[in-house]
Structures are given as structure tokens and as C-alpha cells.
Amino acid sequence: MVVRLHLIFSVVSLWQLAFAFPNNATFSNGPRKIGKRCTGTIESLADIPDAEECTTINIGGFTVPAGGTSLPLPSISMSGELTFAFEAWAGPLMVISGNDVTFNGNNHVLNGNGPSYWDGLGGNGGIQKPAPMIQLNMGGTFENVKIQNSPTRAVAVSGTGLTLTSITVDNSAGAAANSASGGKPAGANTDGFDVAANDVIIQDSTVINQDDCLAINRGTTIVFENNSCSGGHGISIGSISSDVTVSDVTISGNTVTNNVNGLRIKTDATATGSTVNGITFTNNKLSGITQFGVIIDQSYPSTLATPGTGVIVENVVFSGTNTISVASDAHRVEVNCGSTSSCPGTMDFSGLTVTGGLEGAIVHATLSGGSF
Ligand SMILES: *[C@@H]1O[C@H](CO)[C@@H](O)[C@H](O)[C@H]1NC(C)=O
Questions:
Q1: Is residue 141 one of the residues assigned to a domain?
Q2: How many domains are contained in the chain?
Q3: Which domain holds residue 181?
Q4: Can 108 be counted among the known catalytic residues?
Q5: Catalytic pick from 194, 211, 212, 268?
Q6: Given 25, 152, 299, 318, which is the most exposed site by the fewest CB atoms within 10 A?
Q7: Which string of b and e fits 198-213 if b means at least 16 CB within 10 Å?
Q8: Residue 218's domain is classified under what CATH number?
């Protein structure tokens, strides 16, 4: 009984789904009486008061209007598409918080209405675009969700202990120009997954976009496995700012096609007090890379400029068979470290083969093995 009560208390206090809006001052964020053994159905916002008392919620099939509400939910199951109405504001459009949340999209669509925002400028001007589209400040599982047309960044992972499985981020429509983008791709800064969290697995997912497929900004014990990335800027550790740690990262079994970069570690030139330690790339296949097959660069936001020395990058390993084919004017491997003490030890490139393109330079780093 005590355990049961504790669980119900946890339901009350630890789960929350918020549809966030500009007027979020009016949100109802307090704990609700929840935990009835029922399945609630939400097909419009009017269904929320009854449904939110249930332990399982089916949600979908409506447009979230420019208003606001929040739901404390233990288990969320989508029953139809959710479309987010246009509004020029900071975002995010949807936030899920909690320690052990189950979210199953059942392959339904979360539609961010990107074409209403896209102007080729992303987060750098023009129409204000809510970002990220979805903030997962949660542990648990998030699976079978189709995220379509995010205004800019799609999914930000900020909770601990989250497994994402079979997520599609489809911003393929953003590759074409529109009337506002001056001939450039209309979608910009449409990162697939931005991770700043510990104990995260992202697997069996697909990203079609115009920026990083994956960007890890901080965190430990992160696995990115058996995903596919197309059209964007590649798989990236970073950019790394000051006083953060990224460690124990496994990037394995991914397929990357037609991206600007393949595998990248980028650290801010001015950053201090940060560490990137233990990055393992295993059995990834990349093709159609247009600028850099592999790039480790301590000069961000510039590229291959004067690097900083305030971020230690060590224990970078290519294991198994990573193959990368790059375009004829792309560079196969570039390593641009500020000093041998900011890239200490030997980087193990034995499991890497890069073909095509041009040879790059290795600056202030020691590499072993590989063919590139
Ligand atoms: C990834 O794919 C490999 C090869 O098919 C498979 O052995 C492995 O179990 C997969 N990993 C996950 C997490 O599904």
C-alpha cells in the first residue's frame, strides 16, 4: 500500500506534458488528481479535464490552438496527428517533463507547420521561430513519432535516462526554396536531435533536414545507433562551450547520405574548462559528403581557423569499419587542434576508411591507423 501510494504520488508530481504558447503565464501547471485506472481520450483541448485524471492518455487528431495548457501525464499514446498553429514566438511548442514518461506516437505526426515560418534564415533572423519544436526534459521512452516540418531545431533532449526509438524528423520540404528564402533552402537550423543530457539512447531513427543530424553539447553515456541522416550537416559532437563535459559517446551503425560533413567534433575557440573524452565511432557508412568526411576542429565558430586550447579532446576511436566517401572537392580528414595538450594522446583511426576528395591536414594531434 505504501508503495502504491508512492507511485500515485509520483504520478501526480513527476509527469507533465505542456503545449507551450506565448501566453504561458496562464498555464495551469500544478499537480492534478491523477492515477485513475482509466484510458483518457483527448481529441480536443476540451477533453483534457476528464482525460488527465487517467493513467493512460490517447491524444491526437486536432490542431493545438494559440492558447495554452499543460497536462501531468504518466503514459501518452497518440491517436492522430497533432498540428501546431502558427505563432511567431520563442517556443518550444511542446515540452514533456518527468522521470519516467512513456510516449508512444504510434507513427502519428507532430506537425510543426514549418512552411509558415521558413524564410531561409532559421534562427538568424526573419520571422521569429519557436525552438526547439519539442523539448524532452524527461526520462523514459519516446518512440514511433513522426516529426514533420519543425520551424527550426526539432528535438532537444535535456532529461536523464531517455531512450528514443523509431523517430522520424522529416524536414525534407525545407530543402526547396520558397518565396521568402531568396533562392536558398527554405528550412535552416533544422537540427534533428540536440542532446544535453546523460544516459540517452537514440536508435532506429531517421532525420532529413538542413542542419546537424545529431549535435551533442554536453552529457555522458550517449548512444546514437542505427539511425539514418540525409540532407543535413552530419553527426556532431559540439559545438562545445565552456565548463562542460561530453564523455562516453557511441556513434554506431548509422547511415549518413548527402550531408555537408560526415563525423565532426567542434569546440569553441574561446571555450575553457571543457572536456570531450571517449568518443567511439563504429561501423558507420557515409556517402555523398560535400565538405569534410571527418573534421575535429577547435576553432568553432570558424572552420579550420585559429584553434583554441581550452577544451581537451581525447580518446577518440574509430573501431570496426567506418567507411566514408566524399565529393571530389571535399576533404577526407581534417584535425585542427590548438596544441598537443588540448588533443593529448593518440587518436585511434584504425577503423576508418575515407575515399574520394582531397587530403586534409592533421595539426597538433597524433593519429594511428586508418586509410584516408
Ligand atoms: C543495430 O544494427 C545491428 C546490425 O543490424 C544490430 O546487430 C544491432 O542489434 C542494432 N542495434 C540496435 C540498438 O537495434
A1: yes
A2: 1
A3: 76-368
A4: no
A5: 211
A6: 25
A7: bbbbbbebbbbbbbbb
A8: 2.160.20.10
